[in-house]
Amino acid sequence: MTNLFEQNRNYVLGDQDLEIIGDRDKLAQWRHKGMGPAFYKLGRKIIYRGADLNAWVEAQRVDPSIECA
């Protein structure tokens, strides 16, 4: 598994690195719908852990060589 995010780093909204998975509005939509990567909500601050982001990214992986049923 390739890590797109630093495992031990915390990311907050506005971090440029989060743009790789979606902009601020897209992340807000996912949180509202119960989708997207795991996050912490501390008051009004949203925090994503690098390890959680990497796990979510890996779960989104599509391998076209695997035949779909």
Primary descriptors:
69 residues; alpha+beta; three-stranded antiparallel beta sheet; 3 strands; globular; MerR family transcriptional regulator
Oligomer: single chain
| Rg for CA atoms | 13 Å
State the shape: globular
Q: What's the end-to-end separation, in Å?
A: 25 Å
Low confidence ranges: none
The string of secondary-structure elements, in order, is EHEEH
- Biggest sheet strand line-up: 1-3-2
Number of domains: 1
What percent of residues adopt helix (DSSP H or I)? Answer: 25-40%
The share of residues in extended strands comes to 15-25%
Helical segment count: 2
- Averaged pLDDT: 93
Most strands sheet: 3 strands, antiparallel
Briefly note the structural class of the backbone.
alpha+beta
Number of strands: 3
Organism: Roseobacter fucihabitans
Protein name: MerR family transcriptional regulator
What can be said about this structure in brief?
This protein has helices at 24-33, 50-59, and strands spanning 10-12, 40-42, 45-49.
